[in-house]
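Give me structure tokens for this 164-residue protein.
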Amino acid sequence: MNCVDMQFFESELSMDDERVCNLLSKILRNFEIKYGIGYQFEGRLTTAYLHIFGNGSEFYGYDNSLEWQGSLRDAAEAGFARKLRMAYRANILNGEHLKLDISGQSLQEWIGANASNGSLKRVNENWIRRFDGSQIDRVNQVIGAASALISWDPPVPKPRRRLP
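Here you go.
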């Protein structure tokens, strides 16, 4: 499988650190990776492990990790080109990802249209996409609404109970 999952546990190295981008660049220069995710993780190691393989551990409240597990084989065979798992603080994307339609424009155009949508850095045939953690819910909402996220499970408002 040509996918990488990088977790940074409660460490001094934050996702904003340029060393994360340098590490991802080094990986891309030495391995053929079609898709990757990187995120800061706080919690138990077993929960993180379950999240990697989509065994029911949710990283976000709107992340259906079981959907990811069910699509892993198909995604790998398609080169992880059709969709993203979710938008994480750091993603390794391929050229096909950048063509995904997001609100009438390509993902690449959408990212470039507004700095809060993230930034792209090309490394060989791939791209590293990063964005500010304060934007994670908004970015997932927009990309999820465009049906470009495998694990997107939008929150459904609970109906208000009517008193008799």
